């Protein structure tokens, strides 16, 4: 069988009030921020099968091998990915996701300390890592990974901040991973008079027009952050992190241990099934700089290496990722029936149009914003219609 899904909308404060309704027709009678639509079996927001009305987690537990497939059931024992629509009106926190081993250690440590899973100061909600792919539906603004150190130095030379001059000089003397760690840690832990001086001196550059393109863009982001989170150390992040503006249809991958922040826009996001987030700024939520720094890989990412290069085939694009937890395709359904094979558990999400999803035993029709579960046991199935369909599997 193929099952339509009923999914959970998370009403986080940074979410858009209009994106999910305008793009996909979701109702929002109370004008709440609709930040994320979760498609998966994570306990913090588990989908349900529309018919019968049972949770996806329970359905998988009762039918593990037929839903997941033998390989996924034996290796993961659960749905290994979480699929989302993410609609950001204001910036998300500057954050890092820990790797698999550190997630297991942190989860057990916080359990032993008696920190409730729902506690505001809980860092580790589960024992899993959280690498993720982002696919833009609208223009999608973000920061992803450290800039090349030479670019960081050039930006701080242009945007002179006297109160940080000694720290920038130290990076010039040691333009390597430890040097980057030292400056990043300094920026995130600024307090008192030095913090006040740094932010004041930075603000004097807002509005300048006599700077490089990189500096102008970094200052635009920084000023936007300052308006929304005055006095937050994360205001300096655009000088250190790569700024990325995905166009609709473009995608990028975010490794575990990589600092990043989503700034604005609507996108699909697929990740290992985890909700572990270590935060460092631009948020009223719990910030743990020490834990974040301990879980950060201080390596630069060249801007040219951020966008994923899709593998294009007739009728679909495959976006390759360096992890086994998930795979991701975007398919163009047409009036001609296109045959597919479920070799693991799949979730389909219709981003626009209308599509028929049919197997020997079931027919499901998806409109924009609707999703379906295709268990591994379905095997062969077909799509047909005029639609764009995102396909999550592993």
Describe it.
By secondary structure, the protein is of the alpha+beta class. The chain is built from eleven helices and 20 strands. The protein has helices at 19-24, 56-62, 64-68, 70-75, 100-112, 149-158, 165-173, 177-188, 192-203, 213-228, 289-294; strands at residues 3-6, 8-10, 36-39, 48-49, 81-88, 94-96, 132-136, 140-146, 241-246, 251-254, 260-272, 278-281, 311-313, 316-318, 327-333, 338-341, 346-358, 363-367, 371-374, 380-393. Strands 1, 4, 13, 14, 15, 16, 17, 18, 19 and 20 form a ten-stranded antiparallel β-sheet that branches. Strands 2, 3, 5, 7, 8, 9, 10 and 11 form an eight-stranded antiparallel β-sheet that branches. Strand 17 and strand 18 (363-367) form a beta hairpin. Helix 7 packs antiparallel against helix 8. It is globular, with a radius of gyration of 22 Å. The protein starts with a strand and ends with a strand. The mean pLDDT is 95.
């Amino acid at each position: 069988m193929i099952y339509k899904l009923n999914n959970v909308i998370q009403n986080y404060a940074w979410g858009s009030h209009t994106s999910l309704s305008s793009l996909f027709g979701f109702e929002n009678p109370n004008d709440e921020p609709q930040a994320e639509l979760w498609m998966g079996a994570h306990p913090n927001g588990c989908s349900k099968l529309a018919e019968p009305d049972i949770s996806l987690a329970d359905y998988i537990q009762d039918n593990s091998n037929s839903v997941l497939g033998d390989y996924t059931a034996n290796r993961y024992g659960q749905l290994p990915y979480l699929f989302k629509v993410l609609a950001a009106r204001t910036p998300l926190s500057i954050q890092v996701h820990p790797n698999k081993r550190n997630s297991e250690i942190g989860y057990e440590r916080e359990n032993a300390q008696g920190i409730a899973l729902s506690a505001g100061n809980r860092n580790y909600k589960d024992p899993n890592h959280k690498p993720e792919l982002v696919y833009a539906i609208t223009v999608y603004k973000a920061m992803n990974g450290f800039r090349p150190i030479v670019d960081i130095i050039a930006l701080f030379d242009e945007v002179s901040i006297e109160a940080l001059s000694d720290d920038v000089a130290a990076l010039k003397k040691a333009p390597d991973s430890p040097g980057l760690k030292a400056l990043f840690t300094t920026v995130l832990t600024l307090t008192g008079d030095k913090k006040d001086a740094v932010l004041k001196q930075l603000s004097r550059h807002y509005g300048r027009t006599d700077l490089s393109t990189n500096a102008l863009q970094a200052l635009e982001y920084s000023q936007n952050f300052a308006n929304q989170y005055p006095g937050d150390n994360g205001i300096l992040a655009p000088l250190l992190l790569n700024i990325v503006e995905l166009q609709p249809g473009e995608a990028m991958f975010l490794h575990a241990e990589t600092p990043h922040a989503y700034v604005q826009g609507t996108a699909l996001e697929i990740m290992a099934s985890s909700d572990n987030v270590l935060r460092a700024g631009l948020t009223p939520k719990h910030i743990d700089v020490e834990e974040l720094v301990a879980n950060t890989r201080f390596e630069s990412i060249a801007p040219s290496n951020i966008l994923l290069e899709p593998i294009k085939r007739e009728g679909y694009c495959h976006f390759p990722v360096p992890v086994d937890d998930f795979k991701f395709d975007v398919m163009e359904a047409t009036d001609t029936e296109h045959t597919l094979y479920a070799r693991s558990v799949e979730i389909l999400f219709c981003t626009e149009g209308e599509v028929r999803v049919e197997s020997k035993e079931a027919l499901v029709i998806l409109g924009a914003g609707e999703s379906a579960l295709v268990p591994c046991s379905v095997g062969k199935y077909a799509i047909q219609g005029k639609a764009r369909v995102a396909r999550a599997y592993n």
